[in-house]
Specification:
The structure is a homodimer. By secondary structure, the first copy, chain A, is mainly α. Chain A has a single domain, classed as Multidrug-efflux Transporter Regulator, Chain: A, Domain 2, CATH 1.10.1660. Helices cover about 50% and strands about 5% of the residues of chain A. The first copy, chain A, is built from five helices and two strands, in the order ααββααα. Chain A has a two-stranded antiparallel sheet with strand order 1-2. In chain A, strand 1 and strand 2 form a beta hairpin. Chains A and B meet through helix 3 and helix 5 of A and helix 3 and helix 5 of B. Chain A binds a DNA duplex through helix 2.
Chain lengths: ~130, ~130
DNA sequence: CTAACCCCTGACCCTTGCGTCAGGGGCAAG
DNA sequence: CTTGCCCCTGACGCAAGGGTCAGGGGTTAG
């Protein structure tokens, strides 16, 4: 499977795959004699895992620092913290992400409230610099 | 008043003032014979207004396209939509910003829910690509 | 006069996850 | 053999709001 097909199978683009490889999320794949990357189903599965974790808001660096555990999250395995030794290496980054999400939601909600208030009152009470 | 003092008075940096000037938020100020920018209290007030609007999430481009109305928001004036003709030129951009804030809050809240769910269940149900 | 700041312009750096060329080579079909 | 699609690497672009030099000049106190 060449990069275009692998990317399509994983729901992304060749550019993204090369990018993940460059950033250490994917092991350098086998190459054909002419230098073209060759992917198998396992790598495609791994890319799918990567995409889902990214969609949850984890960063490329988060995943890169735990690249050696990424295969533990393959979709065809039973993926449970209690049943998958080593999976809990993701717990810190996930809870950190949860915290930043909460902070961000709170910030935006606060902001939304102020902005709506301005509209309602005609903006007579601009807040001080925050 | 030179740029450093003006920036400090407005709670920001010289770089930001030059940036606002370059982007059309500030009129080019008077210059001394040697070319140094000279600011008065009115420009400082204007910068404060700019900073507050930016803090509310409006963009530099939003403000640039309405730069001619910015002085209407000076803090020492009574700032009311109904009493300040022309102020309503900000209404569209403010309501647009409100809409994007709502969308963003909803998105993050959704994300937070999924992430928390993963933690709770051990992540056995990864969502499809979204 | 000179140190110690301050200011000037222009230009590159940052963050994130890739998109988009640019220039050159590979590979199966007609 | 040629067309047409795919792949390679390397490098720049983006969005936003400035930060941070680099190199050169002003200004004011001692």
């Amino acid at each position: 499977m060449r990069i275009g097909d692998a990317a399509a199978a994983a729901g992304t683009t060749p550019r993204a795959l090369r990018f993940y490889e460059q950033r250490g999320l994917l092991h350098p794949p086998a190459r054909t004699a002419s230098g073209q990357r060759e992917y198998g189903p396992a790598e495609v599965a791994r890319v799918r895992v990567i995409r889902r974790l990214l969609a949850l808001g984890l960063t490329v660096d988060d995943l890169a620092s735990r690249a050696h555990r990424l295969d533990l999250l393959a979709e065809d395995r039973p993926w449970r913290c209690s049943a998958t030794p080593g999976l809990d290496t993701f717990a810190p980054v996930v809870s950190a992400r949860l915290a930043t999400l909460d902070a961000e939601i709170a910030r935006l909600t606060e902001l939304r409230g102020r902005l709506a208030h301005h509209v309602a009152t005609g903006g007579a009470d601009l807040p001080a610099d925050t």
